[in-house]
Design goal:
Residues 75-257 form the IclR-ED domain. This is IclR family transcriptional regulator. This protein is α+β, with helices and mostly antiparallel strands and 264 residues long. It folds into two domains: 13-79, Winged helix-like DNA-binding domain superfamily/Winged helix DNA-binding domain (Arc Repressor Mutant, subunit A, Orthogonal Bundle); 87-255, Beta-Lactamase. The chain has helices at residues 3-27, 34-41, 45-58, 74-85, 88-104, 146-153, 157-164, 179-192, 238-254, and strands at 61-63, 70-72, 107-114, 117-124, 139-140, 195-196, 205-213, 219-228. Helix 1 (3-27) crosses helix 3, helix 5 packs antiparallel against helix 9 (238-254) and helix 6 packs across helix 8. The longest helix is centred in the N-terminal third of the chain and has 25 residues, at 3-27.
């Protein structure tokens, strides 16, 4: 291999490793050490350490003085927030989420459709003295969350098949893991325009969600409310369902959707 090509290949591998390190650190909430990173990425501890020191100098990761673990740094947090702030879906949901929270009192949440699940992109805390909700950045499953089920139900048949034939993990004893039952629920969701998932993602929690459509008419996300099952029942009632459906319509219009919506 010519020397220039060799240097280019080495530089590319270095960039790839740096991105893999950032990904591992970001996904490990309590921090991660050099040995664990080297094992996970299949390389030497010395190589991992060199890359980490560069990332520390640039502020993308930091190391506690009394620990050997590395966590995400201020630069990475800032970068992530900048990406979220520039998302068209986020800017379209801000006022609507606040209005939905004020109308019903529950925590309001917006999620974006990704290939791997529903990414929580914005939340507004409810009025309860006990904060109930989901964290921004959480990735929710397509089969075990109201956000995921409603997005899947209004997606293409091919996408639905992908979900139904994929891994249907049981997060609790109430999570639907039978493809036939899940497919039947998708039909119900399409008729009424909303989904719930009481005790399915976590015991004691429920979410009511409706789909957000973009200018092409495709599902791009969901909007909903989150609370304890004692405050948000499996059948949420007409007032709650109507409020979430109306909010989904408002945000869909802001996302460029025009014409009748296929729900509610």
């Amino acid at each position: 291999m010519p020397e220039d090509d060799k240097k280019m290949a080495e530089g590319l591998q270095s960039v790839i490793l740096t991105m893999q390190i950032v990904d591992q650190v970001a996904r490990t909430g309590k921090g991660v050490g050099v040995t664990s990173l080297a094992t996970a990425l299949g390389t030497s501890k010395s190589r991992i350490h060199r890359h980490l020191q560069t990332l520390v100098q640039q502020g993308y990761v930091f190391q506690h003085e009394d620990s050997e673990r590395y966590e995400i740094g201020h630069q990475l947090v800032s970068l992530g927030q900048a990406v979220l702030d520039n998302s068209g879906l986020i800017s379209s949901t801000r006022d609507s989420l606040l209005a939905l929270r004020d109308r019903l009192g529950h925590s309001a949440v917006a999620s974006q459709l990704t290939p791997d699940g529903m990414l929580v992109i914005a939340t507004v805390p409810g009025r309860s003295p006990i904060e109930i909700g989901v964290r921004v950045g959480s990735l929710l499953s397509f089969h075990g969350s109201a956000q995921g089920k409603v997005a899947t139900a209004f997606s293409s048949e091919a996408f639905q098949r992908r979900v139904l034939t994929g891994a249907l993990t049981a997060f609790t004893e109430h999570t639907l893991t039978d493809p036939a039952l899940l497919a039947a629920e998708f039909e119900v969701i399409r008729r009424r325009g909303w989904a719930t998932a009481p005790n399915q993602a976590a015991l004691g929690l429920n979410t009511l969600a409706s789909p957000i459509l973009d200018g092409s008419g495709a599902v791009c996300g969901s909007v909903g409310i989150v609370d304890l099952t004692q405050s948000l029942a499996a059948d949420p009632g007409t007032e709650h369902a109507a409020a979430v459906l109306e909010t989904a319509r408002q945000i869909s219009v802001l996302m460029g959707h025009s014409g009748p919506l296929p729900f509610g």
